[in-house]
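User: quick one, sequence for these tokens?
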């Protein structure tokens, strides 16, 4: 398998809006709609429509053959160990849950008036990476556009800031090999269809590339597909997830359950749950404010100096704040350059990326 990622990163962002906006992928300068209501994640959700396509096609069919409540078309599910590692590293703010609509009553638990997919009356969910709005110019586009973009993607180089790091997500490393193995369309091919060029240069998959295989079915329970033991704890969460107004405490609740789960069972360790929740809330302390606050610069600077917190939460808040300002501008300002990431991410401690010249 050989892919051409230079100038792409199609699997690290939700570019649905480019198609919906342009039709043929051409630029027309129209701005995207954001459901900004002044609360939490709404800018992340408001940039795209739900369920238009999926990163993994039907490869996660046991869970994802149902529409999710969120609107991320390229959700990257993490394993339990990855959730724990991100928590330990103070990166809780990078993660968010995904729940699904139930197919029918037999698998449903009602929360906030929704029929939520469940196993043994326990709502099931993934934990994945958040996508704040960032100005990016993929696929040879001349000008940047605000798109939901993985928290770890450097918008300047379109390279992953944690590639090669020990906590680089397994799913990202296995993509698109698992889709090829399952005979599903890859993101590379979707980009080729929409924008031309050769992204999937060689579609032969080696044994190494499919070494562990995709985690599907019952074996995914407790490893990648988590079961919440107390649906009442999720009241309000499903509504906010669907509206794109998820709060740090909502995410902390799900991260704690995921980190306390056990492989192949529905069991959740109470002590690990308490530890995970405390850790998530600790590192997201300060994310509880309104993301549209404009006066958060001091708080962000202090947070960046903390040993327990990372650049991630403050950077996400700042991206959302900039995006909202841009949307609310009455002067028709151009989308800012991707280089803004130097101030917003790297100045707060984000790892730099090498650029494509360095890799040739
Ligand atoms: S972690 Fe890296 S490779 Fe995975 S989606 Fe995010 S930017 Fe892309």
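Assistant:
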């Amino acid at each position: 398998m050989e892919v051409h990622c230079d100038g792409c990163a199609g699997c690290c962002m939700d570019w649905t809006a480019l198609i919906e906006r342009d039709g043929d992928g051409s630029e027309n300068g129209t701005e995207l709609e954001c459901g900004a209501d002044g609360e939490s994640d709404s800018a992340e959700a408001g940039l795209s429509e739900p369920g238009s396509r999926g990163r993994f096609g039907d490869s996660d069919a046991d869970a994802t053959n149902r529409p999710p409540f969120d609107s991320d078309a390229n959700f990257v599910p993490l394993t339990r160990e990855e959730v724990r590692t991100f928590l330990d590293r103070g990166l809780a703010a990078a993660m968010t849950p995904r729940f699904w609509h139930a197919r029918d009553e037999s698998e449903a638990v009602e929360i906030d008036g929704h029929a939520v997919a469940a196993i043994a009356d326990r709502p099931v969910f993934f934990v994945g990476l958040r996508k704040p709005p960032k100005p990016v110019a993929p696929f040879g586009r001349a000008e940047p556009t605000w798109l939901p973009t993985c928290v770890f993607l450097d918008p300047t180089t379109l390279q992953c800031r944690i590639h090669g790091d020990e906590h680089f997500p397994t799913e990202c490393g296995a993509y698109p090999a698992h889709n090829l193995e399952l005979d599903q369309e890859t993101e590379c091919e979707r980009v080729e269809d929409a924008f031309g060029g050769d992204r999937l240069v060689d579609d032969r998959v080696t044994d190494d590339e499919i070494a562990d295989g995709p985690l599907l079915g019952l074996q995914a329970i407790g490893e990648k597909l988590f079961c919440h033991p107390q649906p009442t704890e999720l009241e309000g969460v499903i509504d906010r997830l669907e509206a794109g107004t998820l709060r740090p405490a909502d995410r902390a609740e799900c991260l704690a359950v995921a980190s306390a789960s056990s492989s192949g069972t529905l069991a959740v360790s109470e002590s690990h749950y308490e530890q995970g929740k405390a850790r998530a809330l600790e590192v997201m302390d300060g994310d509880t404010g309104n993301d549209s606050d404009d006066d958060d610069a001091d708080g962000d600077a202090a947070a960046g100096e903390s040993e327990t917190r990372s650049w991630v939460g403050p950077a996400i808040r700042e991206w959302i704040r900039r995006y909202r300002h841009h949307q609310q501008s009455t002067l028709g300002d151009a989308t800012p350059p991707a280089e803004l990431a130097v101030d917003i991410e790297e100045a707060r401690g984000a790892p730099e990326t090498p650029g494509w010249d360095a890799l040739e």
